């Protein structure tokens, strides 16, 4: 991967997730492998610990579990987190969606469509997915899907 492509990935992550996300997702010392589309656009970003992210056609990153773990380690709570308790933990870990009725708290800056980390109240990563509700209202809703889970840690 060229230096300019590496800087571009880091810049895109900083824009989407906030300052410091590029360094958290793509540290300089880590070896990342980038696959490209036939037109040369980045598509998948992998490392030794798994898929970090997919670079979607809309220019946003779609997190993999490796990327979720890196963001979890790179940002203090509550950034990018939706917290659930013991009742829904096994289901979310299997890759099932996180429903609003089980959300204990969430990052208030999460907007619908944002990539989120679903974590247990102890702080363990359970899944990565896409927010369906705003973070400041997730715990207030009694029904509906809060996060459409893409991948659980046990799936």
| Contiguous runs where pLDDT drops below 50 for at least 5 residues | none
What is the number of E strands?
10
- Please state the CA-atom Rg, rounded to the nearest Å: 15 Å
The secondary-structure element order is HHEEEEHEHEEEEHE
Instruction: Specify the structural class.
Output: alpha+beta
Protein name: Pseudouridine synthase
Domain PUA: 80-154
InterPro entries: PUA (IPR002478), PUA-like_sf (IPR015947), PUA_sf (IPR036974), TGT_C2 (IPR029402), TGT_C2_sf (IPR038250)
Pfam families: PUA, TGT_C2
Top keywords for this entry?
single chain, alpha+beta, four-stranded antiparallel sheet, PUA_sf, Pseudouridine synthase, PUA-like_sf, TGT_C2
Describe the structure.
Residues 80-154 form the PUA domain. The protein is of the alpha+beta class. The protein contains five helices and ten strands. The protein has helices spanning 3-17, 21-25, 65-74, 89-93, 135-138, and strands at residues 33-36, 42-47, 50-55, 61-63, 81-84, 98-99, 103-106, 115-120, 125-131, 145-152. The strands form two sheets. It has a six-stranded mixed β-sheet.
């Amino acid at each position: 991967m060229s230096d300019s492509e590496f800087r571009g990935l880091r810049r895109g992550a900083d824009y989407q997730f906030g300052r410091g996300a590029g360094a958290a997702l793509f540290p300089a010392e880590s070896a990342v492998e980038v696959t490209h589309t036939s037109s040369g656009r980045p598509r998948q970003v992998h490392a030794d610990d798994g898929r970090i992210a997919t670079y979607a056609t809309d220019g946003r990153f779609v997190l993999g579990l490796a990327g979720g773990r890196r963001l979890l380690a790179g940002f203090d709570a509550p950034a990018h987190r939706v917290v659930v308790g013991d009742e829904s933990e096994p289901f979310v870990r299997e890759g099932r969606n996180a429903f609003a009725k089980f959300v204990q708290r969430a990052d208030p800056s999460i907007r619908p469509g944002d990539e989120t980390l679903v974590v247990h109240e102890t702080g363990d990563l359970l899944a990565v997915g896409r927010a369906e509700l705003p973070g400041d209202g997730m715990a207030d809703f009694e029904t509906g899907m809060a996060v459409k889970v893409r991948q659980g840690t046990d799936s």
